[in-house]
Amino acid sequence: MSTGSRFFLLNVHLQPRISADDMLRAARRFGYAAIGISTIVNGGGSIAPASDNPAIYTGIEIVTTSVSDLRQKLRRYWSKVPMVVVQGGEERINMAAVKDHRVDILSNPCGEKWDRGELKPQMLKYAAMNGVAIEFNLSVIIESRRGKRARILRRLAENLELMRKYRAMPLLTTNTRSIYDLRAPREMIALASLCGMERGDAIRALSEIPAGILTRRWKRGMEAEQL
Amino acid sequence: MREKRRYILFEVMSEGEVDKQRLQRAIWDSVYSLYGDTGASESRLWLTSYDCGEDTGIGVLRCAHRVVERVRAALACIHSVDGIRVAIRVIRVSGTLKGVRGK
Predict the structure, then answer these.
(1) Which of A56, B22, B71, B90 has the highest CB neighbour number within 10 Å of its CB?
(2) Residue closest to A7 by CA, chosen among A176, A191, A206
């Protein structure tokens, strides 16, 4: 069913109590056309089955501290899912992720609590070259207060400036785990403006960029290298 | 001179019941936290009405017309009200109370 919306919400992590269909229903109410659910893969576990609903995309999120483990998991899962997310934080994982065109999204490059890693020009050059989107997780703005929020906003603005310079793709998310973490696209655009993101860029980070990730548009010409 | 106003119709989805007073406090806290005292005073914010149910509520917020985007951001920053998890969604913005409620 088409909703007429062009917005996508990716990197959704479902809590056990909520089904993908319930999350999609809530997301549509907030104005999204489709959602991308990331399942964290640990060890050799199997991946969640793809949904019958064409508006629900099921991908994986790789959480690891070892570069060799990251590459092994990319080899195992890349061809099986429409979206591969790598949780960053440590600099060597960030760098390994953006150097590999099989990665679609680098999430939390500065750590979940913004206490690790930072975006570097070299990293962003690779991200732009390999079509790896860098997650802009707005939940840190929502959940932090006062000094911490001020520091995070400043770092987000610095990151954004660097990303513009190197033409890396930002992806707006809210680290959605339940329906209470959902924010409507217009609200996301207003939040992104707090760190200096222009309206047009924010719309692109919620529509064109995620749509391109799900259709592997940013990877055109790279599949042959893999084979 | 009277400044132009905007009315924001919004929906609150919550884990439990959130009354008008607590919601109003949460909105003010969020605006103060994001924009400070001067920003809050410029917003000319007023919770015109709020009907709460067990896990949803609908309200109308009045603000100065220049700060609608700021108020959107402040509403988006509210994630809980006195420990009750909430998500606020703006449904519509209009220049008149009749317009915001009417459609």
Answers:
(1) B71
(2) A206
Confidence of residue B48 (pLDDT cuts 50, 70, 90): very high
**Cβ separation of A190 and B70 shorter than 8 Å?**
yes
pLDDT at A221: 67
- Residue A72, domain extent: 8-226
> What is the set of domains in chain B, with CATH numbers?
5-93 (3.30.70.3250)
Is B85 in Cβ contact with A180 (below 8 Å)? yes
Q: Which residues of B touch A149 (CB under 8 A)?
A: 33
On whether residue A3 sits in a domain, the answer given is no
**What CATH number is associated with residue A36?**
3.20.20.140
Below-50 pLDDT ranges, chain A = 1, 227
pLDDT of residue A227: 42
In this complex, is the C-beta atom of B15 within 8 Å of any C-beta atom belonging to chain A? yes
Chain B contact for A150, CB < 8 A?
A: no
Closest-CA residue of B relative to A26 is B13
Query: Which residues 27-66 in chain B show a CB within 8 A of chain A?
Result: 33-34
Tokens of B86: 């909430």
Q: Chain B within 8 Å of A18 (Cβ-Cβ)? A: no
Q: Does A24 reside within a domain?
A: yes
Nearest to A183 by CA among A24, A27, A2: A27
